[in-house]
Amino acid sequence: MSQHVLLPLDPDEPSTWKKALPEAVSQARQRGATLHVMTVVPRFGSSIVANYFPKDFEQKALAEAEQQLRALVSKEVPSDLPHQLIVAHGRIHQEIVTAAKTVNADLIVMASHKPDWSDHFLAPNAAQVLHHTPISVLIVR
């Protein structure tokens, strides 16, 4: 049975991968797993907001996200480790849960920030993923 480790991150935010990426690589190596590195381009939220952006904005954002992810992975993920890139578009925690199901992930490794009072009003993505997936989630602080 093959193993799969999913690592969601934001290539522009080192806090989402500086500690989590080495841990995900370690977990993938220990398990003999494929590492799936993903990023999510968030949706605008409403069609009213989307109307203020150029028509091809989403396609350009997705292409840029893929380019940034590819550059980060080529620099930070060992070339001998089997890996795949995933670029998704939508609500971040939902896209992570969907990708985990799609690749049949055994483990999700992701970074989280130090909780504070604002988290009671707007749950961070790590907490949302943890609550919406039956897959093991390793949260790296």
Question: Your description of this structure?
Answer:
- The chain is α/β, with parallel strands linked by helices and 141 residues long.
- The protein is built from 5 helices and 5 strands.
- Strands 3-2-1-4-5 form a 5-stranded parallel sheet, sandwiched between helices.
- Strand 4, helix 5 (125-132) and strand 5 (136-140) form a beta-alpha-beta unit.
- The protein is globular and about 45 Å long.
- The relative contact order is 0.22.
- The mean pLDDT is 89.
Task: Quickly give the structural class.
Answer: alpha/beta
Unreliable residue runs: none
| SSE pattern | EHEHHEHEHE
* Assembly category: single chain
Average pLDDT reading: 89
Number of H/I helices: 5
Report how far apart the termini are: 30 Å
What's the arrangement of strands in the largest beta sheet?
3-2-1-4-5
> Which bin fits the share of residues in helices?
25-40%
Approximate strand percentage: 15-25%
Number of strands: 5
Radius of gyration: 15 Å
Question: What overall geometry do the principal axes of the alpha carbons give?
Answer: globular
Q: How is the biggest beta sheet arranged?
A: 5 strands, parallel
Summarize the topology.
Elements: E1 4-8, H1 20-31, E2 34-41, H2 47-50, H3 57-76, E3 83-89, H4 92-102, E4 107-111, H5 125-132, E5 136-140
Parallel strand pairs: 1-2, 1-4, 2-3, 4-5
Helix pairs in contact: 4-5
